[in-house]
Amino acid sequence: MRRVMIIAGMCGLAALTACNNNDTAADRDLFNDTGNTINVNDQRAELYNRDDNRGLRNVSEDFGYVRHQRSGILEDRGSNDHYAAIDREQLADIIGKYCTDVPNVDDVSTLVTDEEVLIVYNTDSKDRFETADQVKKMAMSVVPRWYHVYVTDDERLRKNVENFATLDSDSRNVDSMIDGIVKRMLKSPQGREMNEGENANGESRGETNDNLDRDDIRERTKTGK
């Protein structure tokens, strides 16, 4: 009888140990290093699930759910890391593919900076305004809401946009160069105004501090503040 009780006790202890290990593994799956993110179905860092063998998934049956909580630790800026977490090249890839789905649009070049999306496309559309509106809205549906989107069907500007591919946010005079190409793109149709408070490019009414706004975003990207 004593032997049976000892064996039963050992089995119970093993079961408790296994449960504890499973709980620890579950915690690792649910929480990231900062402890700010929980209930994440897919922890991979890529923007919009990417299958290494097939590229961007054409069909996804999984819902996406993430819960973020502000850290209770004083001076913990981990929750602001999202400013630096955007993969701009993947955003450009997604936007370009979406834009080629717009009727009469092909050969799309897309540049994503820290605040702007510049799109040059070829089209044989008879309604340039409507096509510009659709292309712009494709981009707006992908990027964070602070972004401004500029489009053009003037293919003479394609090389100008491509020249930015080797630059980054810290490149010398990059802001003034972007402002210059944007002014030229604005000569093309930009589509409808986004809403009563924003123009066709997603700029707020009376927005006069565009450069200051860009510098602020870049500073947050660097520091996470």
From TrEMBL:
<feature type="compositionally biased region" description="Basic and acidic residues">
    <location>
        <begin position="204"/>
        <end position="225"/>
    </location>
</feature>
<keyword id="KW-0732">Signal</keyword>
<keyword id="KW-0449">Lipoprotein</keyword>
<protein>
    <submittedName>
        <fullName>Sporulation lipoprotein YhcN/YlaJ-like protein</fullName>
    </submittedName>
</protein>
<dbReference type="InterPro" id="IPR019076">
    <property type="entry name" value="Spore_lipoprot_YhcN/YlaJ-like"/>
</dbReference>
<feature type="signal peptide">
    <location>
        <begin position="1"/>
        <end position="20"/>
    </location>
</feature>
<dbReference type="Pfam" id="PF09580">
    <property type="entry name" value="Spore_YhcN_YlaJ"/>
</dbReference>
<feature type="region of interest" description="Disordered">
    <location>
        <begin position="187"/>
        <end position="225"/>
    </location>
</feature>
